[in-house]
Amino acid sequence: MAVNKCVKFLLFFFNLLFWISGCIIMGVFIYLKVNKDGNSITNESLPGIDLMIAIGVIVMVLGFLGCCGAIRENRCMLLLFFISLLIIFILLLAAGILGAVGEEKVNDWMKERLEKFKPLSKQPENVKADLEKLQAELQCCGLMVGPADWEGSVPSSCKCNATMSDTCTPGTNYQTPCATKIVELMQGNMKIVLGIAFAIAILLIFGMVLSMILYCQISRKDGATNPTSTNA
To answer: What residues contact 165, with CB distance under 8 A and at least 6 apart?
Structure first.
């Protein structure tokens, strides 16, 4: 039985796109990691750049493995590719379940990491500048409690801006702590993350199906040719 060329090249191009996606993920997050304009507050509360770089590398390796296995009709590579996709799919599913079930624990963990920035008045100037930038953007003040986190020396970035907010009186300080705003921002982004995770899961299933179809076809072809070569 001959290997279906359509399945073979479909799997090859799928893995080529997979490899390109890995390159893009790795490149974007390496740029974010070395970018000097990063905010130390959000980097601490929302770690994940190193994880995304690692994911990009893994996706690149898997894409390369799948391309080689498809074009060379190598059963070992295809089986390894299938098992790797299956493991990633299971981990992705487990992470989604844990993220949905343990959302409060994640929020508590994030707030614990932000606690190390207190007291704010004794932090280095670069940390203070990052927090002031965050306060102006998110319309918040302080980290865990509110303006009291600044111990009396409340910066101007805490002042309510009449043109940007209708939830406070102009000239007064924002009362919402930035930790609350960061949690809200994270929760808002969760829908996007879940959408991306769902799309990746669909791609993983598609890749597993194609790789297993090709693996079975190669096995049948090898099984059909071996008796002939033995008799000869």
So the answer is: 139, 174
Q: What is the spatial distance between Cα 170 and Cα 154, in angstroms, rounded to a whole number?
A: 15
Q: What pTM value is reported for the model?
A: 0.60
CB of 207 closer than 8 Å to CB of 11: yes
User: pLDDT tens digits, residue range 162-177?
Assistant: 665 556 777 788 888 8
On whether the CB atoms of residues 41 and 114 are closer than 8 A, the answer is: yes
How does pLDDT run across 195-211, given as a tens digit for each residue?
767 777 787 888 888 88
196: exposed, middle or buried (Cβ count in 10 Å: 0-12, 13-18, 19+):
exposed
Rounded to whole angstroms, the Cα distance separating 174 from 148 reads: 11
Query: What's the half-sphere exposure (Cβ side, CA atoms, 13 Å) at 126?
Result: 5
- CB neighbours of residue 51 within 10 Å: 10
Give the closest residue to 11 by CA, choosing from 99, 77, 70, 51.
70
Tokens of 174: 């924002």
How wide is the angle at C-alpha 52 spanned by C-alphas 28 and 106, nearest 5°? Answer: 130
Q: What count of other Cβ atoms lies within 10 Å of the Cβ of residue 229? A: 7
